[in-house]
Q: What sequence folds into this?
């Protein structure tokens, strides 16, 4: 009988999840001052060099263990299959573009509130996953249904629910994931760089 071994099967996704966990732990140890300084984004003067850093690092920060666990459940469920299909470089581009766009738009529209967490990335992964069966000239029904369910719910919540959830980040992440799914699966075939 062959021995079973644990493999580091998805380096980017596992690294991202570990970074999020480390940042959340660091936030708890520093009374959230590290999170406020480096891992959440808000409108800041263009002369502040940390503003540019936070446009990308806000996806690593989380408002506690429950927030982290909710996002990591999806990241760890969806991410390895996406990393295997599209490669770590393409998936890293999706994460970085999602972070940048959600951070920029949030700062422009909601300058007095902070944004943190990987939920935009989660929604990008959800919509990107629904494109895995894409063929040129077709739109997968699963993509349409997932878009209606997940993005429709976010639009509804944005209009009807008042909470601390950034529905706009979810919607933007979903649009980025859907766009990436289309671009990665068109004529050049899966595995192409964005």
A:
């Amino acid at each position: 009988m062959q021995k079973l071994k644990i493999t580091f099967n998805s380096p980017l996704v596992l690294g991202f999840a570990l970074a999020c966990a480390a940042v959340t732990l660091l936030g708890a140890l520093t009374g959230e001052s590290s999170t406020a300084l480096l891992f959440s984004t808000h409108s800041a003067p263009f002369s502040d060099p940390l503003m540019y850093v936070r446009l990308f690092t806000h996806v690593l920060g989380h408002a506690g263990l429950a927030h982290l666990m909710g996002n990591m459940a999806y990241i760890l469920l969806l991410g390895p299959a996406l990393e295997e299909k599209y490669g770590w470089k393409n998936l890293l581009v999706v994460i970085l573009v999602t972070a940048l766009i959600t951070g920029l738009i949030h700062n422009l529209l909601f300058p007095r509130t902070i944004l943190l967490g990987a939920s935009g990335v989660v929604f990008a992964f959800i919509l990107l996953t629904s494109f895995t069966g894409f063929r040129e000239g077709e739109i997968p029904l699963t993509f349409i249904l997932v878009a209606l369910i997940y993005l429709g719910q976010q639009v509804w919540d944005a209009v009807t629910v008042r909470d601390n959830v950034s529905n706009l980040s979810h919607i933007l992440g979903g649009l980025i994931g859907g766009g990436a799914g289309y671009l990665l699966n068109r004529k050049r075939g899966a595995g192409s760089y964005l």
In short: The chain has a mean pLDDT of 87.
